[in-house]
């Protein structure tokens, strides 16, 4: 089997980064819902364990850490997109080139609107 081309390597990296970004956004939404749930039950002490305030503080901290990771990841995606675009002319086949164009289009579309600002 022939080794992967530079374009295939760049495409794989870009796809991985896009998938990673999606998982961070999913995690961020889950954290927001847990925070909302904790804030809603914060005045209600029926749990009995008494650590609601600590849990809320930890969830908010985790949310801020997740938000802090995303800008660096977006920069990596931008760099990977640029690298992939420069390698488009070196595509071994028209099929490979079309796949690269599709992945680039998807990555650009996902970065168009940034919910974390």
Automatic annotation (TrEMBL):
Gene Ontology cellular component list: cytosol; microtubule
Gene Ontology molecular-function annotations: beta-tubulin binding
Keywords, ordered alphabetically? Chaperone, Coiled coil, Cytoplasm, Cytoskeleton, Microtubule
**What subcellular locations does the record give?**
Cytoplasm, Cytoskeleton
Which biological process annotations from GO are given for this protein? post-chaperonin tubulin folding pathway; tubulin complex assembly
Major location category of this protein: cytoplasm
Report the InterPro entries cross-referenced here: TBCA, TBCA_sf
Determine the domain of life of the protein's source: Eukaryota
**Coiled-coil region:** 56-113
A Pfam family annotated for this chain is TBCA
Q: Which family does this protein fall into?
A: Belongs to the TBCA family.
- Assembly and oligomerization: Supercomplex made of cofactors A to E. Cofactors A and D function by capturing and stabilizing tubulin in a quasi-native conformation. Cofactor E binds to the cofactor D-tubulin complex; interaction with cofactor C then causes the release of tubulin polypeptides that are committed to the native state.
PANTHER family, sorted: TUBULIN-SPECIFIC CHAPERONE A
Name of the protein in question: Tubulin-specific chaperone A
Q: Tell me the organism.
A: Cyphellophora attinorum
What taxonomic classification does the UniProt entry list for its organism?
A: Eukaryota, Fungi, Dikarya, Ascomycota, Pezizomycotina
């Amino acid at each position: 089997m022939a080794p992967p081309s530079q374009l295939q390597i760049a495409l794989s990296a870009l796809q991985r980064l896009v998938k990673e970004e999606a998982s961070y956004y999913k995690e961020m939404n889950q954290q927001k819902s847990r925070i909302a749930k904790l804030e809603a039950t914060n005045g209600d002490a029926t749990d009995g364990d008494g650590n609601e305030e600590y849990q809320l503080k930890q969830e908010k901290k985790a949310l801020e850490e997740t938000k802090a990771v995303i800008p660096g990841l977006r920069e990596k995606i931008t760099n990977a997109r640029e690298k992939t675009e420069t390698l488009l002319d070196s595509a071994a086949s028209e099929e490979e080139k079309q796949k690269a164009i599709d992945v680039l289009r998807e990555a650009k579309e996902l970065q168009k609107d940034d919910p974390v600002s």
